[in-house]
Amino acid sequence: MAITRQTSKTSRRLSSYGEAASDALDPPATAYERARDNLLAFLRRPFWSAIAIVHILLIVADGAFFFFLLVGWHAMCTFPAKTDCEPRNWWYNLSVQLLNVLFTWGAIITLPERVANAVHLTQTMRSNSPGRDFYGRLTVEVWFSISEKHRRRIVAILLVNNLAQFANQASRIVYYSYELQDTFPGNLWTNLFFFLAMLAAGVAAGYKFKQERILRKKFPGRFPDPLADGIEFTRRSVARQLSRQTRSRASIALRNDIVVHVGERSGNYARTSAMGNEAATAADGTAGAAAGVTAAAAADGAIVKEAAMAAASKERPCAASAAMHSAKMAEILSAAAATALPPSPHIALSQNDRSYAPSNELLNAIDSPARRKVQLVVPAANGHANGHTLNGVNLQTQMPSREGSEVATGASPGATSVQNHRAQTLEQASDLAETSPLDALAI
């Protein structure tokens, strides 16, 4: 990062130096140099960048159409062959002509800069040493930092590409029809110049890329690489978007797994939420806890539903979500009384613990980087919970008895009244309204 900032400062300093020294060039700028600068500045306007994008898209589209006709992947005709019939031949010649026009346009638009570099590398009025621009001033552009020998070779090959493409376009004008370009001598000249132009363009591009890569490896961070920077920026943007989607899917899957899947599987479920330390737990399946579940179900989940209504009545951002979770708890508690279940282990969700995955559905929904595990806490041998805690949060449950005078906890039934428990539940629901449901599930 420090190298990049230093390079940016150096670029601005050199640019300012060049602007200040442009009026004091020795020798002064010639008419050719001023015309060259104006033309190159005109071709570097954003308008031409948009034209270049359209140009590339047209080449790709027409090139694909040309290829399909070349190999016979069409349904235009079949006799005498799919690669030699009408109207396939007419469309084939049209696609070739259009493709050559697009290549010729590329050769025209790149010719001024290639000629400017050729003149710069052959003249003696200005310095053309590595690191010097057209006026012999210091520059940090990677192209001017390539040695003179390699730059001369690259420019020569690029000019061969331009000349071969112009000759190819001329041959396509002379041999304009499919029959003329498919018979001798039309097939010789059109194909010869076409392949020569393509070969020169490929060799020059590879040669230039290799020399620039050598310089960037030798001086890391000194020369900017717009293509690599753009690819890296796109990769990071896509990775961030995928990460957000993964976390969202993980949150939904984890909530469904804990609230629905685990609740229906174990038959009794309790949820403990705190602002600074969230955890989701499954209630102890001992005889005492089963009695408490039965008592809560006998009341048809009225306490929890009342807590949900109280939470929803508060004007807080997460009140509706808290009410939905409380209502879901009421449904689970009501369904839990239908059967008597054997003792079931506590299931405690922890953000830091990674010892056990809750279900296959959850594992399939969550990618490895975003996966959250579940810890099993087995009750004591006497059938009652021992007051296990997870990060300081009590994992026991507290539910009213059927008679309304006792409260069943994870250890044993207590003597807390239903009204006291209702007040406590309302207070917990108020706290729950301040916490996002996804935050409470440690995601």
Task: Please describe the topology of this protein.
Elements: H1 2-21, H2 31-43, H3 46-71, H4 88-122, H5 142-145, H6 148-174, H7 178-182, H8 186-218, H9 226-266, E1 270-272, E2 279-281, H10 287-298, H11 302-313, H12 319-336, E3 346-349, H13 360-365, E4 374-377, E5 389-390, E6 393-394, E7 398-400, E8 407-409, E9 413-414, H14 418-433, H15 437-440
Helix pairs in contact: 2-4, 3-4, 4-6, 6-8, 9-12, 10-12, 11-12, 11-14, 12-14
Description:
Pfam families: DUF2985 (PF11204). Keywords: Membrane, Transmembrane, Transmembrane helix. Residues 1-24 are annotated as: Disordered. The chain crosses the membrane at residues 47-70, 90-111, 154-176, 188-209. With 443 residues, this protein is mostly helical. The protein folds into two domains: 25-229, no CATH class; 246-440, no CATH class. Helices cover 61% and strands 6% of the residues. It has a three-stranded antiparallel sheet. A hairpin with a 2-residue loop joins strand 5 and strand 6. It is flat.
Descriptive key words:
three-stranded antiparallel sheet; DUF2985; 443 residues; disordered N terminus; 9 strands; mainly alpha; transmembrane helix; 6% strand; disordered C terminus; 15 helices; 61% helix; single chain; two-stranded antiparallel ribbon
Strands of the widest sheet, in order across it, are: 7-8-9
Number of helices: 15
Q: How far is it from the N-terminal to the C-terminal residue, by CA?
A: 32 Å
Helical content band: 55-70%
Structural class: mainly alpha
How much of the sequence lies in strands comes to 5-15%
- Low-pLDDT ranges: 1-22, 264-308, 310-319, 337-358, 366-419, 432-443
Shape: flat
Extended strand count? 9
| Domain unit count | 2
Major sheet size, sense and barrel closure? 3 strands, antiparallel
Radius of gyration: 38 Å
Region (Disordered): 1-24
Keywords: Membrane, Transmembrane, Transmembrane helix
Transmembrane segments: 47-70, 90-111, 154-176, 188-209
Pfam family, one: DUF2985
